[in-house]
């Protein structure tokens, strides 16, 4: 049995993970970490550095300000960390990458298997379409999401950008009076209601449009991907891993 220490256990995603883990016979939650010290069926600590319960992997659905303590605990106990939190600064991302030199680290901006398959498709088609198509990304989320654009929108944008040989710039929204420049990717964020997550990549050409769209109907799609990542990360060697590794099984 793979024992999970769940960081952010009392948050929205933490509760979904807790409800779904019973569908994974090889996984269990041994402890939770959350600033809200609500009682659950497993012990809950307000800080992971206070956790005295054994775990095989750390699954993080918390906030960026938990990063340092998570890395400290992971290094001390030599266990892998699955980072599902978004909104990290560039400095924090560097810390995560540096930690992968000593412990197994998993990070993905979106835990959905579908989104990551789309990301693979974008690697193949972006360079082919770029010359004759303008590229725009629209992302929609609930009104409580704190970061914009979403980590997933940036994941998709970075994949497109890295697939194109020319220099490409990001434009977040459009304001002012000017024509669109071809070598830019427009990224637009919509926030409202209870939208779980919707991402659309538009390739707009002369007389034709190609749209690649993913809609998350419930948070379960992210929880399922995260739990598969926990299975994948069990007893992995130090290094940096992502959902692409999970999809490819290596």
TrEMBL record:
Name the record gives this protein: 4-hydroxy-tetrahydrodipicolinate reductase
Active site per the UniProt annotation: 141 (proton donor/acceptor), 145 (proton donor)
NCBIfam families per UniProt: dapB
PROSITE patterns in alphabetical order: DAPB
Organism whose genome encodes this protein: Clostridium ragsdalei P11
Entries under InterPro entries matching the protein: DapB_C, DapB_N, DapB_N_CS, DHDPR_bac, NAD(P)-bd_dom_sf
Domain of life: Bacteria
PANTHER family: 4-HYDROXY-TETRAHYDRODIPICOLINATE REDUCTASE, DIHYDRODIPICOLINATE REDUCTASE
Its EC number(s): 1.17.1.8
Gene behind the chain: dapB_2
Residues binding NAD(+), per UniProt: 8-13, 84-86, 108-111
Domain Dihydrodipicolinate reductase C-terminal: 114-247
Keywords: Amino-acid biosynthesis, Cytoplasm, Diaminopimelate biosynthesis, Lysine biosynthesis, NAD, NADP, Oxidoreductase
HAMAP family: DapB
Every Dihydrodipicolinate reductase N-terminal domain range: 2-111
UniProt keyword NAD, yes or no: yes
GO biological process entries: diaminopimelate biosynthetic process; lysine biosynthetic process via diaminopimelate
């Amino acid at each position: 049995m793979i024992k999970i220490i769940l960081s952010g256990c009392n948050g929205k995603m933490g509760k979904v993970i807790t409800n779904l883990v019973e569908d994974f016979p090889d996984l269990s939650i041994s402890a939770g970490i959350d600033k809200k010290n609500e009682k659950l069926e497993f012990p809950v600590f307000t800080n992971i550095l206070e956790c005295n319960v054994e775990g095989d992997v750390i699954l993080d659905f918390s906030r960026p300000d938990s990063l340092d303590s998570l890395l400290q605990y992971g290094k001390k106990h030599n266990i892998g960390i699955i980072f599902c939190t978004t909104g990290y600064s560039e400095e924090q991302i560097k810390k995560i990458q540096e930690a992968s030199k000593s412990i197994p680290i998993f990070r993905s901006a979106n835990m959905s298997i579908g989104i990551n398959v789309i990301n693979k498709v974008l690697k193949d088609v972006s360079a082919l379409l770029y010359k004759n198509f303008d590229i725009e990304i629209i992302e929609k989320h609930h009104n409580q999401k704190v970061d914009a654009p979403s980590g997933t929108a940036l994941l998709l944008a970075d994949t497109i950008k890295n697939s194109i040989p020319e220099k490409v710039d990001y434009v977040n929204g459009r304001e002012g009076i000017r024509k669109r420049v071809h070598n830019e990717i427009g990224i637009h964020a919509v926030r409202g209601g209870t939208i779980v997550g919707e991402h659309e990549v538009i390739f707009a050409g002369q007389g034709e449009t190609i749209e690649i769209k993913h809609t998350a109907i419930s948070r379960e799609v992210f929880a399922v991907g995260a739990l598969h990542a926990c299975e994948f990360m069990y007893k992995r060697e130090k290094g940096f891993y992502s959902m692409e590794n999970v999809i490819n099984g290596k």
